[in-house]
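Handout, tutorial session.
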Amino acid sequence: MSSPNYCLALQNCRLYFRPAAILPKSLLGEVLLTTIHPVFFTIQSISIKVTPIAILILKKTNMQKRVLHNPKVKDKVTILKTADETGNDHILVEVELAPGGGTAKHYHTSFTETFIPIQGELGVDVGKNTFRLQSSQQAIAKQNEIHRFYNPGKEAIRFHVKISPAENRFLESLCIGYGLADDGLTNNKGIPRRLDHLAVLLEHSDTRFRGLLRLVEPLLLRYARKARKKGVTKELIERYCN
């Protein structure tokens, strides 16, 4: 395998060099190369030697990862289209939602969400309107419009959510939220245990609440600004999105 082609395949990826026997399960990805002979190549002016006792694991960053799973609430999000793939027009994700799952009433100030059921009945409340959507129907929650979605049935459902205009921070917040849950850093409802993590998610996803949650929102947003200055936001993005 030549170095130029090899380096091209490593764009937007992380490299892990470990003896195969001690590789953590969380790092397992696509096995790109195993070797019985030393291999030399260069990445960003750093010469790297892969020895016979090492295995090269390619793990795409979470922003490139297409499927996000939350083990706490047993739902799954599949990224269908990113901002880059739509010319920054929109983002499209598919959600699998367990019975009884859903969100509290909230709104977003910077983007519109369109909910499109694929399998099963999807409940969506927008303003004072309540929808029970079937395939080929849809509901739109515009900017600053209070809404929520939920699964009113007894079987898991699938639906698409279109976010427009495209907002990469939304995908980053998904990666962070699901990453925290996967690392056991949330409660059973997927809410971060640490206040600074919760504050960062609230701000980064551009999510604003109504009801009792609105009372603590100003405090959380102030906490999010402090967390950003302390580098917490950057740390979470680097851990789960880069």
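The second record follows below. Compare its token runs with those of the first.
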Amino acid sequence: MNTESSSQIVSRNFTFSDKPLFRDADILECDHVPDQVLFRDAELEEMAFLIRPGLRGQRPANILCRGLPATGKTTCIRHLFDEIRDVSNTLLPVYVNCQQNRSAFAVFSTIYRELVGHAPPGSGIPLRRLMDAVAKALQSRRQSERTVLLVCLDDIHHLIHEGTDTQILSSLLRIYLDYPGCRASVILVESDLALDISRRLDRSVLSSLCAEEVFFAPYSAVQIRGILRERTRQAVYPSVISPEILDLITDLTASTATGDLRVGIDLLKRSILRAERTGRPAVIEEDVRAAYGDARLTHLRGLVSVLTEKERRLLSVIADMIGEGEEAFRKEYGGKEYGGKEYGECGEPVPPTSGRLYSRLLEVMADEQSEKQRRAVGQRDRDQQAVEPMACAEPGPGYGCDRKDGRSQDQVPTISYTSFHEQLRSLATYALIRISVRQAKGRTSEITLRYPAADVKRICEGR
């Protein structure tokens, strides 16, 4: 029988060892910007060259940074921006996370806060007045010194999917037309390699953009080990991470779908915490193996968090279909666990094809819309508090039932197959799914997940 009180349990877990393993735990945080960015010298050199004119008060070149997630794009930009703030009062860098700031008002609020030092009122100010305030702040700075605005729009695809990219980019790139003396350039960061920026942006924006592309290739296993070794050297005391343990963490990181460095850094931190919890002076293989599942899920959450709402819905549908197939297989073959072999081999569950997935997605979209309509009708009935029942009333506009399922033809949601395929390619680019071509009564594509369906479904639902 456990006689330990709740206060003793909390005290035991909140009390650190007399010999802590961490020297500086912040080194292993996801928002840490290292003093030296390893293995990105060529990319930093190219970006610095393109930005250099801004240090003399001229407009820097516009830049498009492309590469898979966790390839150092944001780290390089934050490092450059820190250097610019240290050496220049002429070039004003502003970093905008488009995943969190998807509207024009949110983007210009971030710029305003960087210029003025405080945020604008959260409501009651039209966008035009906010843009005027940004321009006036720039003009007032130019009276004493020539100031150029350099705005980084990280994860630009969020603005494209929200339909706010044209307004934001046009306003920034052509700010000199409405506000003489104001100059601005942009750095666009894109992790979705399936997204063709030149086709998705408005022609008027492209004519002003003329961006120079800087590509960030995935890190190799040797580079991953070098970065993890340097983080380890700064984060923990000597002998906490042995070369063998570092090799194991490197191998596990490189084995992820995209070789995501964030998995390795998170795995380092979790392994050290486990060793510290048990009072060991060094990390052992058991700590790493136990922490790997948590680190992979952290990586999966990070990937899902950058998806658009439509992409997340499609990923959830894929997880549902694959999960249903695995469950049916287990029932048919006596509870045999799935895993180890490719789908479709030796009687294992056959993955959904793109055609079946497209049909299922349309059904899910229709069900979602029907649910919204039911809720809207219920709320309307509650609000009206009708005294007399409207018997035999004709359906209102848009509520005619000319389909067997009771939905109006006009109300059936749809998505073009081209848009559907673009979403699939985006999920494949983020290494969340595999798309395999199969010859069976014609050419078709099979969709498989790179992560367990149950984990994907749970994270898509925010659990």
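Points raised in discussion: The longest helix spans residues 354-384.
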